[in-house]
Structure formats: structure tokens, C-alpha cells
Amino acid sequence: MAWRGCAMKWIKTELVGSHNTAPRSSRLSFYNQQRCGFRREAKRPDTKKGNVSQETTPSPHEAGTPGPPPPPKVRRLNLFRPLMFTVGFTGCSFGAAAILQYETLKSRVQTAKDEKDSEKLLQGSQDTAHWHDWWNQLSGVQRQLILLMSMVDDVWSSLTEGQKTVTGIIAVNAVVLCLWRMPSMQRSMIKYFTSNPASKTRCLPMVLSSFSHYSFIHMVANMYVLWTFSSGIVSLLGREQFLAVYLSAGVISTMVSYMCKTASGRLYPSLGASGAVMAVVAAVCAKVPEAKLGIIFLPMVTFTAGNALKALMAFDAAGLFLGWRFLDHAAHLGGALFGVWYVAYGYKLIWRKREPLVKMWHDMRSPGAGGSRPGGGPGVGGGGGPRPQ
To answer: Compositional bias of type Gly residues: which residue ranges (predicted)?
Structure first.
């Protein structure tokens, strides 16, 4: 009985154990299937995500997931507006120069006439004693100021017409150089006083960059060369024509630089008056090729102006084709070619044909004068104001 009871108890224990283990195994197998099922389902979203990412690659913002950045679009540069600006600005420069020459001569004639009349009125009316009494009535500070102004006037009078004209250009370049040293002006200076074909503002910097220098040494070098050749170029062309050539050369040289940069794909900003200065140097050297030139630090070395022009143009041509980026060789070469072209052909094609514009301006300024000249005398052949050559 005891054995039977033990056997029955063991059988019941086995049955109960088997009964308890059966649900556990079934439960374990169920959850295992669910886990396997969840794993399979977990792979599906991965594939779907991959499919979604592949399908929505063109529009990552709609899918809500960050996609690879699109390749940068290369904007094709259109130089039509800078080209039209160059042509228009050059024409306006020479037109304004012709009108300025007309007004200058008219003012000189009128001033000479007024001075002659005033000398007749004042002759014998005042003596030296009057000016002596007036000087004694001045204070010491006033006398010093008058003496200083007299010295400045003597220095100014000793300058040539070309040096007087270039003094204004040097002053403008010095002011722009000071603006470069102001931190608050950096953004505006880069936008308007540097020329870059890739910039959004391309026309106005073609003019302003010709008066812009970031380095003091760069400005001094350009202005020294301009000062050296100022007397020669103004004696050849006159003050008004020189200003027109200088401004036009700055814009034309920048346009040549734009074209070369766009063709080569090297888009970088440039600034400086080197293009305009090269036009002045080339014009003088082409007009007077036998003139003797020298170097400031090597006065014993002399060479002709024609050979100097050939060497400069060869150097800039080599720098342009070899890709040197220390200087804007395209702008230098463009300015030099414009200077040579102007003294050879441009003077006849542009400046000598200003007569209709001057006549029209004269008629607008004095519509009731008929054929009279600015000086007041009767004109010949309908008049048209002063006609200097």
C-alpha cells in the first residue's frame, strides 16, 4: 500500500507536472512565434523605409527625412548687361567731356572779359597805402592764414595742368582707401568697390573699382605712375578728353577682365586703377615711342617708351595665358590695348565727331543767341561755341 501510495503520488506528480509544463511550452511557443513574427514585421518597415527613401529622394522635405543635399547649380554668367553698360558709359564719358570742355572755354572767355573790364575800373582808384592799412588792421592769426594760403596757391600754380587734374583722382583714391579701413563699410566696399563677374552687382563696380585700393603700396604705385605720365597725356589730349579716356579705360579694362575670367572659369574679385593707368601709359608710349624713360630706383637705366610698352604688354600676355593670379593681367592688357587704339584711331572716330553734340548743347544753353559765340562776338557759319582741336 505504501508502495502503491507512493506510486500513485508519483504518477499524480508527473501528471500535474506534465499538465503544468504543457501550457508553459505552448505559451513559450506562442510568444516565440509572436517574437519571430514581430521580427519579420520589423524587417518590412526597414525595406519600406528604404523604398520610401528611394522614392522620395527628389523631395526629402515631403518624406520628412533628411536626404542628401542637391548638387550646386552652376549659374551661367551673362555678360550682356556689363557689355551694354561699358558701351553706354564710354559714350556718356566722351559726351560729358565735350560739354565740359565747351563750358570751360566759355567760362574762361567770360572771366577774361570781366577781368579786363575790372582792371579798367580799378586803375588808379586805389594805391599801395590802402592795402598797407588793410594789412595792419588784421590780427596775427589772420596774417598767418593768408600767408599759408598764399604758399599753397604758389605750389598749386607751379603744377602743370595734368598734375592738377590727377590731384583730384589721387584724392578720391585716398578717400576710398580710408573707407576700406572702416569695419562697418566692409560689406558695402566688397559689393560695390570690387569687380567680380560672379557677383550680383556687376555694372557699378566696373567704375568704382577703378578708384579702389585695399593696399597702401598698391595705391602709391598706381598713383605715382599716373602722376608721372599726367603732364604728357594732358598735353596730348587736354584735361576733359583725358578724363574721358581714363574713366572709359577703367570700365573697358574691367570688361575685358570679366570676359577672361568667365572664359577660364576663374571667378575672383579684382580692384585697382591699374587698367586705367595702363591705358594712360600706353597712350603716351604709343604717341611718343622715342621718349626716354627710367626707373625711380635705378636712374642709370634708361629705355625708350616704345620698348617699355612692348615689355609691359608681353608680360601681361604671358601672365594671362599662364594663369598667373598675382595681378589681373587681363585688365592690364585690356587697358593698354584701349590706350594704343585710342591714340591711333579712337581720337578720329570719337573726339573729332563731337561737333554735333556741342552745337546742340550750345543751342540748348542759349536758344536766343542765334549764331553768337560764348564770348559774345558773332559766329561764323551759324556758330556752335568754341571748337578746340
So the answer is: 368-389
